[in-house]
Each structure stands twice: as C-alpha cells, then as structure tokens.
Amino acid sequence: EKEKEKGQIYKELVKKGIPGILAGFTSSIISCPFDVLKSRLQLQRIDNIVNVNAFSLANSIWKKVGIKGFYSGLTISLFALVPNWFTYFFCYDNLKLYLLNNYSQLSYIQISIFSSIGAGIVTNSVINPLWVVKTRLQTQLTHNLNLEFDHLNNNNLNNNNL
Asked: Which residues contact 158 (CB under 8 A, 6 or more apart)?
C-alpha cells in the first residue's frame, strides 16, 4: 500500500514537474541575454557611468566577447529557473486540483487565479534564496567582463563642463 502511494506521488511529480523543468530551461535560454543586459546596466549606474543604454551595452558585449557574453551566467540561471518553474507548475496544478475538489462554488477563473497566487507565493518563498545567489553571481560575472565605458563617461563629464 505504501509503495503504491509512493509510486503515485513519484508519477505525479514527474507528470507535473517535467513541464516545469522544460519551461525553466527554455525561459533561461531565452531570457539570459536580457538578464545580463539588465544586471550590467544596473552595475553601470552604481559605477556612475551615464550615457550607457541597452543598445550601446549590447554592442560593446558583442564586440568584446561575442555571443558568449550574452550567456554569461546561463548555468546560474538554469540553477534558479528550473527549480522555480518546477515548483510553480507542481504547486499550481495541485492547488487547482484541491480547489476544484473542495470549493465547487468557485468559478474556474477564480480557481485558476487563486491557484496562480498560491503557487507564486510558495514558489517565491522557497526559491528566493536561489534568486539572490543567481543575481549576485551573475552581476559578478558581468562585472568581470571589464567592458569599457570610460569614453562615454568622459564625454558626458566634458559635456557637463560646458
């Protein structure tokens, strides 16, 4: 009886978790270049380098490191996004099933909304430490690219002195 129950739990984990893992993997690959640009732009502001926009930053990364520069930290992103989406999909599906079985007075839209909110709360509570580590490591990686924006900063300072 217990073995059968464990087998059923395992099947549910696989059935509900695989789409989450695939979603995490796919979203990591698609969003990584944007995440690198976002993190690097935030660092530029901290370093008081102005006149740097996403296009000039992307151009600089492309010229200096190539496509590889846009995927610095991909491993870290996979480390954070895969468990994130696994947890979200698993929680969402189970919450939805629970609400459908126990709160039949709710509409399907309400059940979907409450399931999304609940899954989001659980996922963010459990996975947040991974996001902190991911952001910290990714900003260190992008900061180590040593992209040169001094010419932009110097031009801006010269323009302000006029």
From this structure: none
